[in-house]
Predict the 3D structure of the following.
Amino acid sequence: MKKTAFITGATSGIGRATAHEFAKHGINLVLCGRRQERLDTIKSALERQTDVHTLNFDVRDKEATFKAIDSLPSDFSKIDILINNAGNAHGLDFIQDGSTDDWDAMMDINVMGLLYVSRAIIPQMSERQSGHIINIGSSAGKEVYPKGNVYCASKHAVDAITKGMRIDLNPFGIKVCAINPGMVETEFSQVRFKGDTVADGVYKGYKALQPEDIAEIIHFAITRPAHVNIADLLVFPTAQANNVTINKKM
Ligand code: NDP
Ligand code: 8X3
């Protein structure tokens, strides 16, 4: 029986790479994001390998999130694997200079969005007494760095929510895992710096993680035997030692 995975933030970066990785292994996909044209492109690329359904909604919008998930056709409505990936940093500012709109975006998307999607999907998993949830946290959820304040807070919240989920869902046999990457070369920095050229330098002078590296790790996590749950993984590029120490050659 083919499994179905529900991936948020599937239009770019880690989410898109995970969709490709899962499709290679014949996992049915529900791909989510706000950019419909990208969802359409990814769907047509992957449906040669597996069955794909797309959902266009903003995870900040509670009503839209529940409505979208409720609208899933029966072939896609049984979710075996939930990848809570949608998220981003918005801005990199000292706390005294931070934009409250950026703070709203990070807390609403990275924390509340993850909670809404989870709340909509977990009941069917607990009813079936099976399921696997992977939350994409960050090294920023393990260690705070200068100007990282609210982004780090949002990812520390993901860390705490993951631990809470693992405890509360333990009686139901649901696996809960956090994968916490360091620097991954995606659209992350374009979003964080709002198109500013400073984003161009973020991945220069060293080999950053690629989204496919994280996708392979996610696939490894979801293919462990039934009694094995990878609970928490911190993954850096070799050139990175922590959130502020990166061995750049230029
Ligand atoms: P990208 O910017 O490449 O991808 C972000 C994805 O999130 C997009 O598909 C985007 O889709 C989706 N998204 C953003 N906001 C919303 C929203 N309001 N509603 C629905 N979907 C949304 O970044 P990454 O792939 O790097 O980021 C994925 C996750 O990995 C994030 O949680 C990020 O915090 C985390 N991470 C990233 C690291 C990095 O260095 N890149 C390191 C550690 C963690 P769309 O715009 O179409 O809605
Ligand atoms: C993304 C990695 O270091 O920009 O979560 O916070 S970092």
Remarks:
- Residues 4-246 form a domain with the Rossmann fold fold (CATH 3.40.50.720).
- The chain has one domain: 4-246.
